[in-house]
């Protein structure tokens, strides 16, 4: 009989809450913006929630339900639903991404500015920022869909 005690590593149980993307996306993270050509970090951070967040999904539902209502109303009148213009689609995209930006800050307590004007946080100002600054919209869009930003391994 062998009296040796072997050191066997016992694996811990796996809890799916460790990969709860909804909770992680709702918590959010700070995205440090970078210069569009040099990729140098800027002194501005946006607080972002992700694609599995309640905010993102509520905005998607709001937009889709509005489309369904319009299509249904058109069908009741025997007409085809009105197609969205390019500008309407771009506006909806900016609104969806803006619903994921829940705050912003500048280093040292200074102000975030847009075209020489202080830009205080509001959904309307975020929509304006994303509409007028495509490089920022692109960074936000990339951050919102990348779950690695929200789940730390």
Biggest sheet architecture: 3 strands, antiparallel
* β-strand number: 5
**Percent helix:** 40-55%
Strand order of the largest sheet: 1-2-3
Mean pLDDT: 92
User: What is the C-alpha radius of gyration, as a whole number of Å?
Assistant: 22 Å
Q: How would you classify the helix and strand content by structural class?
A: alpha+beta
Shape: flat
- Which stretches are poorly predicted, pLDDT < 50 over at least 5 residues? none
List SSEs in N-to-C order: HEEHHEEEHH
Which range does the strand content fall in? 15-25%
Euclidean distance between termini CA atoms: 43 Å
Short note summarizing the structure:
By secondary structure, the chain is α+β, with helices and mostly antiparallel strands.
Description:
This protein is α+β, with helices and mostly antiparallel strands and 153 residues long. Helix content is 42%, strand content 16%. α4 crosses α5. Strands 1-2-3 form a 3-stranded antiparallel beta sheet, with helices on one face. It has a two-stranded antiparallel ribbon with strand order 4-5. The mean pLDDT is 92. The chain is flat and about 85 Å long. It is built from 5 helices and 5 strands. The longest helix is centred in the middle third of the chain and has 23 residues.
């Amino acid at each position: 009989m062998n009296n040796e005690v072997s050191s066997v590593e016992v694996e811990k149980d796996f809890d799916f809450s460790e990969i709860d993307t909804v909770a992680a996306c709702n918590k959010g993270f700070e995205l440090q913006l970078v210069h569009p050509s040099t990729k140098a970090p800027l002194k501005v951070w946006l607080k972002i929630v992700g694609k599995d967040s309640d905010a993102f999904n509520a905005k998607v539902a709001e937009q889709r339900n509005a489309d369904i209502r319009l299509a249904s109303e058109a069908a009741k009148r025997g007409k085809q639903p009105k197609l969205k213009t390019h500008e309407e689609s771009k506006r909806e995209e900016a609104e969806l991404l803006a619903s994921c930006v829940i705050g912003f800050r500048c280093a040292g307590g200074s102000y975030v500015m847009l075209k020489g004007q202080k830009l205080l946080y509001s959904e309307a100002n975020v929509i304006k920022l994303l509409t007028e600054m495509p490089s920022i919209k692109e960074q936000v869009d990339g951050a919102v869909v990348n779950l690695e930003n929200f789940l730390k391994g």
